[in-house]
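PROTEIN DATA CARD
Card holder: Site-specific DNA-methyltransferase
Chain length: 279
Origin: Candidatus Bacteroides avicola
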Amino acid sequence: MVVQKYRKTSKMQRSVWDEKEFVNERGTEAVKQLFNNKSYFDYPKSIFTIKCIIELGSDEDCLILDFFSGSSTTAHAVMQLNSEDNGARKYIMVQLPEPATEQAHDEGYNSLCDIAKERIRRAGKKIKEENPLTTQDLDTGFRVFKCDSSNYKDVVFAPKDYDQGMLEGLRDNIKEDRTDLDLLFDCMLRWGVELSLPLNTTKVDGCTIHNVNDGDLVACFDGNVTEAVIDAIADLSPLRVVFRDSSFCEAAQKMNLFELFKQKCDWTDEEVKNNVRVI
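Structure generated from the sequence above:
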């Protein structure tokens, strides 16, 4: 169901869209154009249909969510519409990793998500190639996330269940298979930092510093974080800072960390408490 909340023009929207542009066959044609005349989906939605819905119910800088994204027609439509009106719309595509067809699997696509990701890449490239003068600043990039368990080990046990081997394993509270990016994006979610913001990394004293959006969040998860690393982070004038607990061998080092940020960033005790986290 489509609800018209307001009209940007005096033109009245019709209740029934029956032009050829709206039929699903047009959606199939769009996919075939991107995949060498192959369509891995049954009747994907028409780009024209989704574009009209987006124009009807949103502004040029809205966030568009498709919770059953399938072939990612919505992402394709958002990029196409941005290229036409210089909009700054963003999209979130949500899809279960349903198995792909046998044909698609044979060509390297294991799930619908794999095909959809490739469609977004190819659609973005095609839009830029067809409109080189008006799409120089068009953002066609995207990030892929999947639901998973917590980054942190489950340490809730009854006292009688502990043994010496378990205690040794609890020296680090992070699961062994988690990467820096797993930890970083988890921190971004917990702090309410947009996952689409630009990310840069630099090396200082052998440690990797992750810088989100020029200081919105700066993180270092390496061991043996030196004062030079802390100085480099403070020089970025960050809004938020996060380290890993195992980055510091002694509690005194963590206390020194907070004092350094108080001095270098001119933060109060309360600001340090809110802006610096050790996970």
